[in-house]
Amino acid sequence: MVDTECQADQVVGNDQKTGQILDAALPVFVRFGFRKTSMADIARAAKISRASLYLSFKSKEELFRAGSMRAHALTLDNVAAMLDGQGSVLDRVEAAIGVFQRELIAPFGGSADAEELFAANMALAADITLAAREKLLSMLTQKLIVAIERKEIDLAPLQARPAQLANIIVAAMDGIKHTQWSGGSGLEDNTRLFMRALKMAVTPRDGP
């Protein structure tokens, strides 16, 4: 499995030029889709020459993969900060999911070529995406374990383990992303609805 933190250091680091290119590339991919985006389009958006762009990235595919690596690493840092913040565990989980959606899902989800972009990510950066998912699952599981120990939540009525619930949360997040372009209520509304249902299911009840 790829260590996204380790590789992200190479991509994020202090390399302002690389960051400038990757930041400029995202809106281009969103506008044109992966297939129609050219290195010339990205160079133009980054305000550099094509020759300069090719010094940093040999191909559009390499650039896209680097962008995915950087985005996942930065987002997971922000997710961790939310999970370590104040408030109830489920409020922190909801905030963390919101960060994950806004930073990784919403940018591509708002594109007319959303399905193509998500497919390109899985074709070019599946290992990065799956490693990030595993780290997210681990973080959620650990927070849920602590919440159970503190009697903040109770999974006994669901006959579920913390890792199972973490998997359900991430699976729901994956499913909810499709509502952004399928005419549904949208990411935020459907995430709030899911979290309300989850809170009702796992909040300890007093009395019989």
TrEMBL record:
PROSITE patterns: HTH_TETR_2
DNA-binding region: 38-57
Transcription keyword on record: yes
Domain of life per record: Bacteria
Alphabetic keyword roster: DNA-binding, Transcription, Transcription regulation
Matching Pfam families: TetR_N
InterPro entries: Homeodomain-like_sf, HTH-type_TetR-like_transc_reg, HTH_TetR
HTH tetR-type domain span: 15-75
Coiled coil: none
A molecular function (GO) term: transcription cis-regulatory region binding
The protein's name in its UniProt record: AcrR family transcriptional regulator
